[in-house]
Amino acid sequence: MGVEIQVEHLTKSFGKQVIWRDVSLTVPAGEICVMLGPSGTGKSVFLKALIGLLKPEEGSIVIEGTDIATCSEKDLYEIRKLFGVLFQDGAMFGSMNLYDNVAFPLREHTRKSESDIRDIVMEKMDLVGLVGAEDKLPGEISGGMRKRAGLARALVLDPEIVLFDEPDSGLDPVRTAFLNQLIVDLNAQIDATFLIVTHDINTARTVPDNIGLLYHKHLAMFGPREMLLSSEEPVVRQFLNAQRVGPIGMSEEKDATELAAEEGQELPPLPPIALQLEPSNGIPRRSQREPGEWCRQNGITPPPGSFRPEAAVLSG
Length: 316
Fold this sequence. Notes:
ABC_transporter-like_ATP-bd, 4-stranded antiparallel beta sheet, alpha/beta, ABC_transporter-like_CS, ATP-binding
């Protein structure tokens, strides 16, 4: 069972440069959340703050009753045991084969026998489809396999929170689709709390239960997937639907001249909301909602064609 992450009024700066300020959100226990945002908006910085690698200037991050923004190093060490992290490039040790890479956290942080370690490592490698590749070195396999090996390593300590830092970076659309399905299947099996940082619009539209968007040094919106996919908020609408018209430009914000030139332009209609990915075995995840449930509860009419198998999905 995953645990909840409560973030309140979080602010992070590097010197005089404010990365984001007054960020507040709750990552629900056991659910899949995606954090989006233009390049340079501090999404990876946010993940590092959640595991205590970076200290915020203001605010709190409460996990299991402990504020990791202010707690002692001893308490932080204990809280970090709840986490598994998949880094952007897999962060594998190049001189170790995949088996030893995945076994590394168990050897470092537990006193398990090699027999027990082998059982756990092979179980996790089976989860990510890497049985048979355990003797290969990271340099001998594809980027997608390295991602899966990194995910197996993130899972060996049975974390209650799993952070994914751009898991789809460097992957082609087919392997991204396989990875997305794997994430959904893993959440169904281990019921942990998942937080994914990504730029991939297909991932954001089909995988998570909740979506957040960082923009212009603040959290523009965070909430259920259907809320953001039906939103008319300009920056949310523009980013999630990959539109050129809106406040985001090549250098993050458009200037007054660019925005004035767009004034009066008719926005394209919102695309249909695609069905959320389901586990491969067809058994719904604990946190999975009925298609259209949020829209019905909040009196929102979704875009025409939503929640049908043939609903359009953007190519990101």
